[in-house]
Structures are given as C-alpha cells and as structure tokens.
Amino acid sequence: MTNKSYPAKLLLFGEYTVLHGGSALAIPYSDYSGQWAFLPQGQTASHSLKPFLRYLQSISLAHLDLAAFAKDVAQGLAFVSTIPVGYGAGSSGSLCAAIWGRYGATVEDITELKSIFIQMESFFHGESSGLDPLVSFLNRPVLLSPKGLEVLEAGELPQMITVYDSKMARSTAPLVQWYHQEIAANPHFKDQVVHRLLPLNTQAISAFLNQDEQALKKAFQAISLWQLEYFRPLIPDAIFSIWQAKLEQQQYLKICGAGGGGFFFMMNPKNNNSAKKNT
Question: What's the CA dihedral at 145, 148, 153, 159 to 10 degrees?
C-alpha cells in the first residue's frame, strides 16, 4: 500500500464573492492530511467507510473500482486523517481524493475530474463544488475564475500569513443561508459585496499570483476591515474580540471559507519568518 498523503485545503481568497462570478483561490495545506491504513484485527475505525461505499455504489461512477474498495474495507481499511472536521479544511475532500487516487482511473481532463469529485463529495454536503478534493488530489493550488479552472504550478501561504485556529467547529449551511438572506434583503450589503469585496478579492489573488507583497498586504488589510464590519454574523464572539485586539498590533484577520469557526487567516505585515500556523 502506498503511504501517499492527501492534504487539507484552504480557500485563501474568494469566499462568498465566488457566488457572484468572482475568482476563488484554493491551496493545499500539508500541515493536516489523511492517508490509508489497514487497522489491526479487532480495531475499528472512528469513522466507518461503509456508508460512503454504499453511496458510491448507488451512483455508479465509471472508472472507479468499487469491488476492490469494498474488499479492502471488509479487510479493515481505514482513512486516517488529522484534518479537523467542521473547519472548512476539506476533510471530506481529502477522503474523496484518496479514494480516487487508490481506486480510480487516470483522468487527464481537469474539468471531468472536478465533475467526478462533485458527485462523490455530494454525499457529505448535499452540494459540492468539487474544488476541495481536486486541490487535495493534485496537491496544487487551483484558481477558479470567470475564465474557467486553472491548476497552478506552485503556491503556498505567504510568510506574512498564518493560520489561526479558532478551536471551534462550525456548520456551513446556516452560515451560507444567512449570507443568501442578507443578499436578498439588504441592497446595501449586496452592493458592498459586489462592488467592494469582490474587487478586493480579485486584487488579492492577482497580488498572490504576481508575488506582489505590498499589493497583497494592502488587499488583505482592506478585506479584513470590510469583513469585520459586514460579516459580523460569520465571526464568533471570541474571535471578534481577538480580531479587534490584533488590529491594535497591526495584525489583520479574515475568514477562511464560510467563517463561523474553524480556521481563520491572520496577516502580520512585519512577519518575515516561516511560521504557517498560529494556535
């Protein structure tokens, strides 16, 4: 058995604005990952693979050897993962990627592969973009833009940006529901998202791709201040207090994915070390 690991994924920029035609940039995050292992006889996995196996059998995906998967599951196969659940870090995406990596055929077309992952991950979320498993499977950043899907050669967290662990899991659905309701009921909020936040995310992604540190700092700071004002329901009280306190130290937070808990990003413009995680 291969010991290949499938990393977590972080949505660096583009949360929510991607729903309005904006770009989104997702990157692999190898500090957390999952891999296959056969458990000793008598030991059971914390999360059974059997319900997911039955789902995959029901949707009849082509080019996926479910007979081999079923045999291995019966023999004690488990997916051992350090990716926290409910953090927006792609825990289910990593599993989908690992299943395809072990039992799936080679698919050269990235759009087709994303479509496969959409079907697989829908078991967990009801609706999936397919982006999480794609990033984990390829272990490369993926840019989703109005021009389409682009797999980037390289890219990781800039040294000035760390991952802040809120130590709180969250459920995505209520957060997204709040967002859609606010968009529908509040014209000023929608105007701010489309004409302010969306361009800021575009600027941040462009700065990241061009390795323009100063432009990235400026865009990140502006996004942080915008979210603090308009995304208050997506920020837990404890994190809101930390967010405000960090501003006094010229450090800036922003949500990662849906918000509400899980990971957040924190930028320290003066940070030149290689630290990637702040707990």
Answer: 10
Q: What is the tens place of the pLDDT at every residue in 43-67?
A: 766 678 999 999 999 998 889 999 9
Residues whose CB is less than 8 angstroms from the CB of residue 220 and which lie 6 or more positions away in sequence, other chains included: 161, 204, 252, 254, 265, 267
Domains of the chain, start order: 6-151 (3.30.230.10), 161-278 (3.30.70.890)
Contact 233, 222 (CB under 8 A): no
Output the pLDDT for position 71. Answer: 96
What pLDDT score was predicted for residue 276? 43
Residues of the chain with pLDDT under 50: 273-277, 279
pTM over 0.70: yes
pLDDT number for residue 45: 66
- DSSP for the chain, written as a single string: -----EEEEEEEE-TTGGGGT--EEEEEEEEEEEEEEEPPTT---SS-SHHHHHHHHHHT-TTB-HHHHHHHHHTTEEEEE-SPTTSSS-HHHHHHHHHHHHHBPP---HHHHHHHHHHHHHHHHSS--SHHHHHHHHTS-EEEETTEEEE-S-----TTEEEEE------HHHHHHHHHHHHHH-HHHHHHIIIIIHHHHHHHHHHHHTT-HHHHHHHHHHHHHHHHHH-GGGS-HHHHHHHHHHHHTT-EEEE-TT-SSSEEEEE-TT--S---EE-
